[in-house]
Design a protein that fits this description.
Elements: E1 6-12, E2 22-31, E3 34-45, E4 49-50, E5 55-56, H1 61-86, H2 93-101, H3 110-122, H4 131-152, H5 164-176, H6 182-201
Antiparallel strand pairs: 1-2, 2-3, 4-5
Helix pairs in contact: 1-2, 3-4, 4-5, 4-6, 5-6
Length: about 220
């Protein structure tokens, strides 16, 4: 099996140079041709930076501190990636960035959080939605539990594991195991879509999995 591409590079964001002449350094994490950038909370004068070496130049204390920080941050990236892989994640650039910026994000469970969301929708009956709509959310939750148990042999999944493959599989599950017509399956998937948008607003996920999964009536 071919080893997946992985790399870390440092570069300056010169447009953000402050009045003191310090320019922030960013880390660019690349996996499988996809990159994510992170502000690493470290700055350096432009004239004391070598892009080819990705290091601060000079022997003064500031340059030594910057280079030491860069080494430490690279080690943190590698540690985060290894930890993700050891827990069954792909260890891609999105997951690594999430782990570095918000270590608790990747521990949020999909069905557990969806159940709370269904309770929230139930509380809105008579105010924002009807009981029929609330019932639809509870139905989706029930079907998702069946699907996760059947397809993944688990009681729940991490929220970050829900992507295109999961949605496509659930769509097929609805139309086979529950004999939902296409429009009926789309109607139920819309509930999942509303939930993932809720997660996006809460910054529990970085991107909505439905941006790449189009629902058509």
């Amino acid at each position: 099996m071919e080893r997946k591409r992985f790399g870390v590079t440092y570069f300056l964001r010169k447009a953000r140079t402050n009045k003191a002449g310090l320019t922030p350094i960013l880390a660019r994490i690349t996996t499988n041709g996809i990159s994510k950038e992170i502000y690493i909370q470290c700055s350096v004068p432009v004239d004391k930076w070598s892009q080819s070496k990705e290091r601060a130049t000079g022997k003064d204390k500031l340059c030594q501190q910057v280079n030491s920080y860069l080494d430490d941050y690279r080690a943190r990236i590698l540690e985060a990636r290894q930890e993700l892989i050891s827990k069954g994640y792909e260890g891609n650039c999105i997951q690594i960035k999430e782990r570095l910026q918000n270590p608790t994000t990747l521990s949020i469970m999909f069905l557990a959080e969806l159940e709370k969301y269904c309770e929230k929708r139930q509380a809105e009956v008579g105010v924002r939605i009807t009981q029929l709509t609330a019932n639809k959310y509870h139905r989706v939750l029930r079907y998702l539990r069946e699907y996760v148990a059947s397809a993944y042999r688990k009681e729940d999944l991490l929220l970050s594991a829900v992507g295109y493959e999961f949605l496509d599989g659930f769509n097929t599950f609805l139309q086979t195991a529950h004999r939902c017509k296409h429009n009926g399956a789309v109607n139920l998937l819309d509930c999942v879509k509303n939930f993932t948008r809720y997660c996006l607003r809460n910054e529990w996920i970085e991107k909505d999995p439905f941006r790449n999964y189009k629902l058509k009536e």
